[in-house]
């Protein structure tokens, strides 16, 4: 492939389609009786559930995946959803839930409502059931996974403040907000939103009969106003990640070196970050079946990225593919397709909602 090059010949964008239609649970219990006077919970992972979504080991793709993550078994220590809840009645205020655990478990006199799919629900919290205060206004916040999220002082029903460092952690961070009048909705519906974005990179040789092996890859900023890997979420009604300190220009981040080099040929693409890494060479980024979770950020701040990689035939030569500035939004996945020839590198990008594979239209960018 010759000397190191900065090439971005083709840039294709496929925008994921939106779909809605979450099941609305009625205010009656599963037996059709009168609504209990205590607060119950119903949880969904998205506005819809797509059974055809690609499954990963750690990413939450649909309601079932979230429920399973919150279910204890001999093979799984249940994750928890953290719940905050305050109420206002006239001039008085009170706390209904102060960072209380919510997970899928059998509780005597627990949740009587059906779940998101209309089945028996085991979404329960420990201790006594919390009763509604008549005619009060409630505000709730939820976050997942409780045991991993780095909450900051000031977090509560009004806002969630949490640090995420994608070079240190790679968990699927989710949040939810509900504001309602007492008993106007029971169970309370928590629609968990993905607070992060996700990147994937696949490589393929397109010249017939040409093969090579991918030895390593990483990202670098090409300028001072660049991509950052750490920020503090400020979640009220919307997911907001304030601009943070960018990684210094030409400093490697998300470095990954597979324990066994990956074969690249014209037959099929190979995915970076999808196989175990050599010792100390980026195993953290292999936990999500090739997806690298990132802090959402705008193109104005993220700037232009370089995808750097080495191949077996190139030896110590570092190849660089330009990734033009783009908006990385919470709840979306971005797949960069790197296509190699003997003389150039071509880059294409597909974008979809977290659990969507379909696209509604296509835009081509050509140099």
What can be said about this structure in brief?
The chain has two helices and 25 strands. The protein has 367 residues and is mostly beta strands. A hairpin with a 4-residue loop joins strand 23 and strand 24 (345-353).
Structure description:
The strands form five sheets. Strands 2, 13, 19, 20, 23, 24 and 25 form a seven-stranded mixed β-sheet that branches. Strands 1, 14, 17, 18, 21 and 22 form a six-stranded mixed β-sheet that branches. A six-stranded antiparallel β-sheet has the order 6-5-4-7-10-12, with no helix packed on it. The N terminus and C terminus are likely disordered. The chain is mainly β and 367 residues long. Strand 23 and strand 24 form a beta hairpin. It is elongated. The chain has two helices and 25 strands.
Domain count, please report it: 2
Task: Give the N-to-C terminal Cα separation.
Answer: 20 Å
Task: Tell me the overall shape.
Answer: elongated
What would the average pLDDT be, to the nearest integer? 83
Descriptive terms for the model:
about 375 residues, mainly beta, Immunoglobulin-like, 2 domains, seven-stranded mixed beta sheet, about 5% helix, disordered N terminus, disordered C terminus
Strand and helix layout:
Blueprint: E1 6-7, E2 10-16, E3 41-44, H1 63-69, E4 81-89, E5 92-104, E6 123-124, E7 137-144, E8 150-151, E9 160-165, E10 174-181, E11 188-191, E12 193-194, E13 197-205, E14 212-221, E15 230-235, E16 239-240, E17 253-256, E18 262-264, E19 270-271, E20 292-294, H2 299-302, E21 305-311, E22 319-323, E23 332-340, E24 345-353, E25 359-366
């Amino acid at each position: 492939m010759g000397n190191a090059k900065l090439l971005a010949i083709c840039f294709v964008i496929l925008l994921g389609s939106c779909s809605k239609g979450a099941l609305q649970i009625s205010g009656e219990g599963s037996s059709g009786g009168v609504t209990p006077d205590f607060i119950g919970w119903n949880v969904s992972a998205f506005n819809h559930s797509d059974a055809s979504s690609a499954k990963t080991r750690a990413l939450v793709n649909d309601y079932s995946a979230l429920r399973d993550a919150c279910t204890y078994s001999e093979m799984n220590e249940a994750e928890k959803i953290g719940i905050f809840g305050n109420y206002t009645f006239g001039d008085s205020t009170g706390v209904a839930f102060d960072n209380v655990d919510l997970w899928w478990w059998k509780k005597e006199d627990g949740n009587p409502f059906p779940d998101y799919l209309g089945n028996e629900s085991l979404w329960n919290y420990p201790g006594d059931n919390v009763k509604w205060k008549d005619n009060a206004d409630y505000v709730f916040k939820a976050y997942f996974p409780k045991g991993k999220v780095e909450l900051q002082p000031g977090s509560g029903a009004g806002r969630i403040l949490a640090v995420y460092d994608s070079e240190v952690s790679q968990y699927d961070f989710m949040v939810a907000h509900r504001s309602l009048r007492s008993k106007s909705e029971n169970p309370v519906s928590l629609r968990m939103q993905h607070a992060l974005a996700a990147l994937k990179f696949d490589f393929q040789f397109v010249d017939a009969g040409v093969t090579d092996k991918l030895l390593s890859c990483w990202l670098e900023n090409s300028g001072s106003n660049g991509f950052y890997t750490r920020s503090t979420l400020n979640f009220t009604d919307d997911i907001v990640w304030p601009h943070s300190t960018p990684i210094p220009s030409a400093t490697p981040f998300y470095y990954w070196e597979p324990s066994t080099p990956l074969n690249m040929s014209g037959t099929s693409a190979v995915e970076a970050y999808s196989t175990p890494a050599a010792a100390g060479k980026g195993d953290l980024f292999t936990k999500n079946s090739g997806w690298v979770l990132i802090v959402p950020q705008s193109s104005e701040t993220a700037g232009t990225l370089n995808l750097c990689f080495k191949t077996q035939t190139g030896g110590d030569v570092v190849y660089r593919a330009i990734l033009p500035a783009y908006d990385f939004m919470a709840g979306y996945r971005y797949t960069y397709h790197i296509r190699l020839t003997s003389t150039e590198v071509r880059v294409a990008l597909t974008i979809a909602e977290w659990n969507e594979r379909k696209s509604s239209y296509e835009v081509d960018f050509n140099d």
